[in-house]
Design brief:
- By secondary structure, the protein is of the alpha/beta class.
- The chain contains 15 helices and 13 strands.
- The protein has 2 domains: 263 residues, Metallo-beta-lactamase, Chain A (4-Layer Sandwich), CATH 3.60.15.30; 96 residues, Alpha Horseshoe (Serine Threonine Protein Phosphatase 5, Tetratricopeptide repeat).
- 44% of the residues lie in helices and 15% in strands.
- The strands form 2 sheets. A 7-stranded mixed β-sheet has the order 1-2-3-4-5-6-7. It has a 6-stranded mixed β-sheet with strand order 8-9-10-11-12-13.
- Helix 3 links the parallel strand 5 and strand 6.
- It is elongated, with a radius of gyration of 23 Å.
- It starts with a helix and ends in a 7-residue tail after the last helix.
- 43% of the residues are buried.
Length: 434
């Protein structure tokens, strides 16, 4: 199993396997790799890194509720030592739901209960998840295409938290915890100096950084890059990421972390330069370009998030919610504007027909420098048509077709999820317009 995991990691690095096929944010992957003596890696929906010490196991992340039993069984085939400490890299639910299985085991065997450690900001995340459970259910159903997904309202809160840095010693092995704002405000990356092993959490995920997710809260690209460079300075020889596969070898680890920092810094610098010149968000979105040589890296391809979305998050962080267009400061209702434009065009059906024509002519054409691709314009027209005539089945057929093409054209999970949701929404309208 170890050979399979590490062989896959090597093939991914060399580009012999496309990350679009071996998606870094996917389901549970079978296997366990013993990276070095006393260090194991379990590839999962969110990976689990295990360290064997004289006092028991230390886990960095514990997996999601869906695979908690499978992760436990995999770890147990490697070691029968009790779980002493679990470190949450951050509070996303795919990382924090595996402790319960180990606690049940501890109770049955009369072992001391494991201690959970996390950053100070993590409990507030769990609190927020509880009072926004409905919203989080909806957006994650949409993002991942999982109808009926329910958001949890019960969490295993940490027993111990820290502010900036924390040194732990467990069974003779040292663990250095570092806080960084990146994908989240509660992120922890863990350095194990004795092993030269770095556990990055989701600060590295074998994809373009998840720094722009359009449906989630604020990300912090500049601070993220600072953290990556701090990691590089430690000269790690093994990188165990929150998603994807291990990166083995000091040169590869340095390159992976440095390239990710370079990408984030480029997007931040370009965006801020345009903001400082007084540009609107629209101009910035269609002017900033990620360095092509970085997006070509097998570990930075936009298969989950996209640089364009990161630019939006940079604007939100430094510039607020208004995009600079005076008409959007106090906008008309979307349906009212759509109805007016449809009347000017000669009806919602005219907008829908034009959307179909543009989509058919431009679904394979690249985006223009000003965002003028036919497919992007088709999406606007299809949505306007549906807002103007929400009960028209023909309009909805056109909308479903246009957004299906948008999803097929997209590379990232984020974009595919939204576009497929829109297509399914319109496909659900029957011929009576109900």
């Amino acid at each position: 199993m170890a050979d399979d995991v590490l062989e896959l990691a090597d093939k991914l690095w060399r580009g012999e396997i496309d990350t679009a096929r071996m998606h870094p944010v996917g389901g549970h992957n079978e296997g366990l790799a013993e990276i070095t003596d006393g260090v194991a890696f379990v590839p999962s929906f969110a990976n689990v890194s295990a360290f064997s010490t004289d006092d028991g196991l230390v886990l960095v992340d514990t997996g999601s509720a869906f695979v908690a039993e499978a992760v436990h069984q995999t770890v147990r085939r490697w070691s029968d030592r009790r779980l002493d400490t679990a470190i949450y890299s951050h509070g996303h639910i795919d990382h924090v739901f595996g402790v319960g299985v180990f606690e049940q085991e501890a109770g049955e065997r009369g072992w001391p209960m494991p201690v959970v450690v996390a950053h100070d900001a993590l409990p507030a995340r769990f609190d927020r998840y509880i009072f926004t459970a409905g919203y989080n259910a909806v957006i994650n159903q949409r993002q991942f295409g999982i109808p009926g997904l329910q958001w949890p309202t019960t969490y295993r809160y940490p027993d111990r938290t820290y502010a900036d840095r924390l040194s732990l010693e467990v069974g003779g092995t040292g663990f250095e915890l570092h806080h960084a704002r990146g994908e989240t405000d509660d992120h922890t990356w863990t350095w194990v100096p004795e092993k030269k092993v770095l556990c990055s959490g989701d600060l590295f995920i074998w994809a373009s950084p998840n720094a722009g997710n359009p449906q989630k809260v604020q990300r912090y690209p500049r601070e993220w890059a600072v953290a990556l460079r701090e990691m590089v300075a430690l000269e790690p020889e093994v990188l165990l990421p929150g998603h994807g596969f291990p990166v083995i070898g000091a040169d590869r680890v340095r390159q992976a972390l440095t390239d990710t920092a370079d990408l984030l810094e480029s997007l931040v610098e370009q965006t801020l330069a345009l903001m400082n010149s007084g540009a609107r968000l629209d101009e910035i979105l269609h002017s900033v370009a990620a360095p092509a040589h970085l997006l070509d890296r097998p570990y930075l391809r936009p298969v989950y998030d996209e640089p364009e979305f990161i630019v939006r998050n940079i604007w939100r962080l430094y510039g607020g919610w208004w995009d600079g267009n005076p008409a959007t400061l106090k906008p008309a209702g979307e349906s009212a504007l759509a109805a007016e434009l449809a009347e000017l065009a000669g009806g919602a059906g005219v907008l829908a027909d034009r959307a179909l024509a543009l989509a058919a002519s431009g679904s394979d054409a690249p985006d223009g420098p000003d965002g003028s691709s036919a497919l992007r314009i088709a999406a606007h027209l299809a949505e306007l048509a549906a807002l103007a005539a929400p009960a028209d089945p023909g309009v909805h057929r056109a909308r479903a077709r246009v957004f299906t093409l948008c999803a097929e054209r997209s590379t990232s999970t984020m974009a595919k999820g939204v576009f497929n949701w829109a297509a399914r929404e319109s496909a659900g309208h029957d011929h009576d317009g109900s």
